[in-house]
Amino acid sequence: MGKRKLVSAKTMRKLDGLLFMSPWLLGFAVFLGFPLLFSLYMSFHNMKMLPTRMDYEFVGLKHYNEILFRSSALYDGLFPFFREEIIMIPVILVFSLLIAMLLNQNLPGRFLFRAIFFLPVIFSSGYVLTELVNQGEGGLGFLERFELGKYLNIMLGDSSWSAPVQTVLNRFVLVLWYSGVQILIFLAGRQTISKSAYESARIDGASPWEVFWKITLPALSPFILLNLIYTVVDMFTYPFNPIISMIGLNQGEYGFNSALAWTYFLLIIGFLGLIVLLYSRFNKNNALRRK
């Protein structure tokens, strides 16, 4: 009898959890799940809008074949964008970590500074950010003021990295706009580290630099991975993404656009998987070195 009550109690707890999750599950199924599946269905069809209905013509992998093997449009926009993001993502992570370390100090007005760094997350939108950059307010102007572009061209030469580096520097304000969430996550992670660990390190005579590399950074490892995943997803969906612009460029070609969106989605998933794999191996090697 007691066992039956125990099973019943477990079932009730599961039902309670499912009940609390049901609004989100319902919203996901209606507003996100169905459109996702329908776009996947459209990617295998040619669609025509008739006066009274939609006409679907099954074409199989035709759109994917055209995107991947018969056209260079995807690659022409994707490779330069990848180079920009490979530069931008580490810059955002390092900047966020430094600001989080500063805001963790016992400084006067630190709560105000935390709010200031998070404000762009609240007020920013794709249209606002696009207008900001289009009006010439997205950069700091120091490249032109100090003629740093010439030095970069000399250092990088005709390398394919010269243009992405200058683009990132010209849009350096975007680092401020896209660092708010990462700063809060790093700040929360820093506050999970026990003060006794730092006190022990000071007693042993460790320098602040050694404390950072031996205590702070290893303890923040899960938060670095979390911020890395968040930043990759955030950057791959921001307004200046040429692939997203390309998806909306072919008006009326719903099947082709859906195939392009799913191709881009799979590329992002593959990129994230590669990042997680490399990060896990890096952490594993570091753990073996410590032993």
UniProtKB/TrEMBL annotation:
It is found in: Cell membrane. Residues 82-280 form the ABC transmembrane type-1 domain. The keyword Nuclease does not apply. It comes from Cohnella soli. Gene3D superfamilies: MetI-like. The keyword Transport applies. CDD domains: TM_PBP2. Belongs to the binding-protein-dependent transport system permease family. PROSITE patterns: ABC_TM1. This is Carbohydrate ABC transporter permease. InterPro entries: MetI-like (IPR000515), MetI-like_sf (IPR035906), UgpAE/MalFG_permease (IPR050809). It is a multi-pass membrane protein. Keywords: Cell membrane, Membrane, Transmembrane, Transmembrane helix, Transport. The chain crosses the membrane at residues 21-44, 86-104, 111-130, 168-190, 211-233, 259-280.
